[in-house]
Amino acid sequence: MDASASLRHRSPTATSTFRLYCQRIEATKNMARYYALSMQPTLFGEMAVVRRWGRIGSRGGEKTEVFATEREAAMHFLDLARRKRQKGYRPVGNCGNPGLLNASSASRQ
Q1: Mean pLDDT, residues 85-97
Q2: For site-directed labelling of 103, which of 22, 35, 64, 87 has its Cα 20 to 30 A away?
Q3: Which of 16, 17, 33 is nearest to 25 (CA)?
Q4: Among candidates 35, 47, 36, which has minimal Cα distance to 11?
Q5: 95 pLDDT band (50/70/90 cuts)?
Q6: Residues 5-18, mean pLDDT to the nearest whole number
Q7: CB 16 within 8 A of CB 73
């Protein structure tokens, strides 16, 4: 089951957190960046998509966007992940998501 199918079958009061951690490293350009995404419930029953980015080893920036439904948040999360992949960012590990394979090895299957 892909990530979007998994999110469609969840209840409207989900309490799970989804995370994605990607890196883009290009030694020839002295580039070592990270991009982290998480989707988590708020205290008011909404869903938040939190982005963190910066140079690996630095604090970087952070932005939180709140959505009324899990579906809206999931669509935004997946759109951001797709755009970063197009720019050369690659997932690292499973980001603590239980039961998920390493995203980079799953995409090769």
Answers
A1: 83
A2: 64
A3: 33
A4: 47
A5: low
A6: 53
A7: no
- DSSP conformation letters of the chain: --HHHHHHTS-TT----EEEEEEEEEGGGTEEEEEEEEEEE-TTS-EEEEEEEEETTS--EEEEEEESSHHHHHHHHHHHHHHHHHTT-EE-S-TT-TT---HHHHHT-
Which residues is 21 bridged to in the sheet?
Answer: 36
108 residue type, one letter: R
Instruction: Report d(CA 55, CA 34) in Å as an integer.
Output: 6
State percent of the chain over pLDDT 70: 71
